[in-house]
Every structure is written in structure tokens, then in C-alpha cells.
Amino acid sequence: MCTGSRRQWEEGRIRALAGRLGYDLRKVAVFGPETDRPVHRLRVLIANLGADAVIVPGLEHFENGAVPGDLVARADVITVQPERTFARWLIPPDSPADMGSR
């Protein structure tokens, strides 16, 4: 849970990463310990916004420090620190999107 200046700092990092990756940040969702079913609420938000990705400060923001599989089924999940992407789709070898990795 982030509060005050820490929350503003985390939001700034999310906004910066979203911009660098070419995302149009539509909303910053903040869930606290009192939030009932936060992953469900996030899935509903993804559906309502038609979001392609969710950017979070880090894995510690998920229960047990793991990205829920049903969340990745709906949108890419990107962490700011460390910067990682949990993608919905696997990029097949030799596809145009994969050519830069060789």
C-alpha cells in the first residue's frame, strides 16, 4: 500500500513507463488493504476500459507476489521494478515481432 508522496512517486513511475512503452494511460487504479476482491475489480476495469495492459509498481502488489493467471489472460501485466512483461500472447519464433531479439 502506498500513501502520500510514495503513492505520487509510484504513479509517476507508472506514467513514465506507460509513455516510454507507447501506452495511453487511461486510469490509475488504487486499491488498499480494505478493498474487497481487488483482482476481480481490476478485471472489470480492464473490460470496461478495453485495456491492453496493466502497469503495476512491482509484484509485491499482488497476493503472494505472483501475477494472477486470470489477469494475464485479459491484459498484459507490466511491472515497473523490475521492468518485466507478463504477456497474454507468446510471440512465435520467426514472427516479425520476434526478429529484433535475434
Give the secondary structure arrangement, pairings included.
Blueprint: H1 4-20, H2 38-49, E1 53-56, H3 69-72, E2 76-79, E3 84-86
Parallel strand pairs: 1-2
Antiparallel strand pairs: 2-3
Descriptive notes:
The protein is α+β, with helices and mostly antiparallel strands and 102 residues long. It has one domain (4-101). Helix content is 32%, strand content 11%. It has a three-stranded mixed beta sheet, with helices on one face. Strand 2 (76-79) and strand 3 form a beta hairpin. The longest helix is centred in the first third of the chain and has 17 residues, at 4-20. It is globular and about 45 Å long. The model has no long low-confidence stretch (mean pLDDT 87).
Q: State the helicity in percent bands.
A: 25-40%
The rough form would be described as globular
Relative strand content: 5-15%
Report the radius of gyration as a whole number of Å. 14 Å
Task: State the helix count.
Answer: 3
What strand line-up does the widest sheet have? 1-2-3
Counted up, domains total 1
Distance between the termini: 39 Å
What is the gist of this entry?
The protein has 102 residues and is an alpha+beta fold.
Offer a few descriptive terms.
alpha+beta, three-stranded mixed beta sheet
